[in-house]
């Protein structure tokens, strides 16, 4: 009886199958690992982007305001002071060209204070702790909200405090005069692609804003 020299024995087939399984398993492990790495990297970028988005917009608008037009409140609506230093809500006005004459002054040379909604209107940024987001809304002259926009989601911390520079001790300290406001924003993400992370991704950003007017 002649043997078919091109045929494989059962042992050879089993060894080949085992090697194939190991190779495929290794490739799958590498692919899963790479996918997890890129997903985490993408989530890290998103976390940082959320905090920077809020900070950038707030700083840009706040710098146009002046201390007399800025008010800070805590989560219970208490005005900022030594007893209520943890502000999560800021309301202010910026100069606008309300009369359409190409500048931001009225006929008497006074700055036209308001926001894009109208003269005397106010901008408000506040922390929606339940939904972990920072909101921006426009308040009319009666403090009634006329529009509301989500600035960023996945925000776990939002703190605004008024500061005053102590020239004697050469440092900033909490003060209701709010010569400067310090904004601290923390963005957080605790899951990726439906998978809960053992350690949430966090990004904290702080900035101090002084007034131009």
| Helix and strand sequence | HEEEEEEEEEEEE
Task: Give the strand content.
Answer: 35-45%
Q: How many distinct helices?
A: 1
> What gyration radius follows from the Cα positions, in whole Å?
29 Å
Distance between the first and last residues' Cα: 104 Å
Calculate the mean pLDDT score and round it: 87
Number of strands: 12
How is the largest sheet built, in terms of strand order? 1-2-6-7-8
User: Which class best fits the helix and strand makeup?
Assistant: alpha+beta
Q: How many domain regions?
A: 1
Catalogue the unreliable spans.
Answer: none
Shape: elongated
Major pleated sheet: 5 strands, antiparallel
What portion of residues is helical?
Answer: 10-25%
Give a description of the structure:
The chain is α+β, with helices and mostly antiparallel strands. It has one domain (36-210). Helices cover 25% and strands 39% of the residues. The protein has 1 helix and 12 strands; from the N terminus they run H-E-E-E-E-E-E-E-E-E-E-E-E. The strands form 3 sheets. Strands 1-2-6-7-8 form a 5-stranded antiparallel sheet. A hairpin with a 4-residue loop joins strand 6 and strand 7. The longest helix is centred in the N-terminal third of the chain and has 53 residues, at 10-62. It is elongated. The N and C termini lie far apart (104 Å). The mean pLDDT is 87.
């Amino acid at each position: 009886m002649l043997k078919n020299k091109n045929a494989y024995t059962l042992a050879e087939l089993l060894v080949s199958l085992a090697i194939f399984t190991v190779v495929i398993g290794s490739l799958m492990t590498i692919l899963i690992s790479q996918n997890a790495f890129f997903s985490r990297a993408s989530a890290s970028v998103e976390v940082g982007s959320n905090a920077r988005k809020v900070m950038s917009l707030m700083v840009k608008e706040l710098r146009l305001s002046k201390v007399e037009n800025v008010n800070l409140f805590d989560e219970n609506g208490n005005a900022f002071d030594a007893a209520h230093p943890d502000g999560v809500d800021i309301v202010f006005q910026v100069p606008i060209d309300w009369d359409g004459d190409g500048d931001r002054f009225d006929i008497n040379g006074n700055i036209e204070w308001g926001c894009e909604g109208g003269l005397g209107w106010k901008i408000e940024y506040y922390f929606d702790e339940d939904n972990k987001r920072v909101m921006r809304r426009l308040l009319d002259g009666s403090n009634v909200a006329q529009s509301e926009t989500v600035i960023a989601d996945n925000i776990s911390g939002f703190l605004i405090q008024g500061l005053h520079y102590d020239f004697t001790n050469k440092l900033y300290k909490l003060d209701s005069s709010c010569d400067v406001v310090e904004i601290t924003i923390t963005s957080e993400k605790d899951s990726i692609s439906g998978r809960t992370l053992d350690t949430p991704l966090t990004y904290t950003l702080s900035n101090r804003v002084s007034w131009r007017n």
